[in-house]
């Protein structure tokens, strides 16, 4: 039987979970953004009033207003003065310019992506990890490998690193106390950390290179060892310190990746 999308009333009646350390406005933003992308709130439809949203979600009107401001900044809703707030007619396509979990970069409402956790364990750091996370030589770090799939198609391997022990506690006591939840999460490591802390990472940086699959990675992605790969190296900071390092190994069969390029400052508008 086809799965029926929840009604607005049913969606807003579901209890809202707020992670430790996550601001309420971020939790409300995430909840409403999920409803928009899952089409609980159809494109172009009117959102409930601030007071109504606050009552249903169990938060103050100020928290709702701040969450709605973030949704509008991200292009998910539009305000019509004197009328109300409406879901945008088209939703922005999030690409590599967004610091977000890679499964969210690849997914669309029509083509959801599944994250399959392959392993998470402590490993001795390589020079790549030492430099990327700013650790001392001889340190250990958490290594997490996740495979992203769409149906039966294997899209990418995500190989992620974060500090451990006292290095992790200095970075985030919340994550250090709850690292087992990262271990057990079905998401990528970045997805699990954002779910725990909210969107607090940044700035971040991506570099893009080309490579080949090799025997081990090829086996995990269903490729021949000599098949090409797109390799994206991602770093992100938390509180001004290196917090996250990853390689995204993307199969050539994956969907195209977008990078939004805004106009240059001071550029003249195009003539009709």
Concise summary:
The protein is an alpha+beta fold and 272 residues long.
Low-pLDDT parts are: none
SS field, number of helical segments: 11
Tertiary shape: globular
Structural class: alpha+beta
Biggest sheet features: 6 strands, antiparallel
Distance between the termini: 50 Å
Strand content: 25-35%
Name the average pLDDT.
86
Helical content class: 25-40%
What is Rg? 20 Å
Number of strands: 8
Strand order, sheet with most strands: 3-4-5-8-7-6
H-E string: HHHHEEHEHEEHHHHEHEE
What does this structure look like?
- The chain is α+β, with helices and mostly antiparallel strands and 272 residues long.
- Helix content is 32%, strand content 26%.
- The chain has helices at 8-13, 24-37, 50-57, 61-73, 102-106, 127-133, 165-171, 173-177, 179-184, 189-197, 214-221; strands spanning 77-80, 84-87, 114-124, 140-150, 153-163, 204-212, 228-238, 241-250.
- The strands form two sheets. A six-stranded antiparallel sheet has the order 3-4-5-8-7-6. Strands 1-2 form a two-stranded antiparallel sheet.
- It is globular.
- The mean pLDDT is 86.
Main traits of this protein?
two-stranded antiparallel ribbon, 8 strands, six-stranded antiparallel β-sheet, 11 helices, single chain, globular, 272 residues
């Amino acid at each position: 039987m086809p799965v029926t999308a929840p009604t607005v009333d049913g969606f807003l009646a579901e209890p809202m979970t707020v992670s430790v350390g996550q601001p309420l406005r971020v939790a409300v933003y995430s909840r409403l953004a999920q409803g928009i992308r899952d089409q609980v709130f159809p494109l172009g439809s009117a959102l409930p009033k601030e007071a109504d949203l606050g009552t249903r979600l169990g938060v103050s009107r100020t928290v709702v207003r701040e969450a709605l401001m973030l949704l509008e900044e991200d292009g998910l809703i539009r305000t019509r003065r004197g009328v109300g707030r409406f879901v945008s007619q088209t939703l922005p396509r999030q690409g590599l310019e967004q610091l977000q979990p890679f499964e969210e970069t690849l997914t669309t409402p029509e083509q959801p992506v599944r994250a399959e956790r392959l392993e998470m364990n402590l490993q001795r750091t390589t020079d790549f990890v030492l430099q990327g996370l700013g650790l001392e030589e001889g340190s250990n770090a958490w290594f997490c490998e996740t495979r992203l799939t769409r149906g039966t198609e294997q899209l990418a391997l995500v190989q992620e690193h974060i500090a451990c022990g006292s290095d992790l506690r200095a970075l985030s006591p919340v994550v250090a106390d709850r690292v087992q939840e990262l271990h057990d999460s079905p998401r990528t490591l970045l997805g699990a950390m954002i779910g725990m802390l909210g969107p607090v990472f940044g700035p971040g940086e991506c570099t893009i290179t080309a490579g080949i699959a090799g025997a081990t990675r090829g086996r995990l992605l269903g490729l021949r060892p000599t098949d090409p790969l797109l390799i994206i190296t991602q770093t992100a900071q938390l509180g001004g310190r290196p917090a996250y390092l990853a390689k995204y190994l993307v199969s050539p069969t994956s969907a195209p990746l977008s990078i939004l390029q805004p106009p240059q400052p001071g550029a003249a508008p195009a003539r009709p």
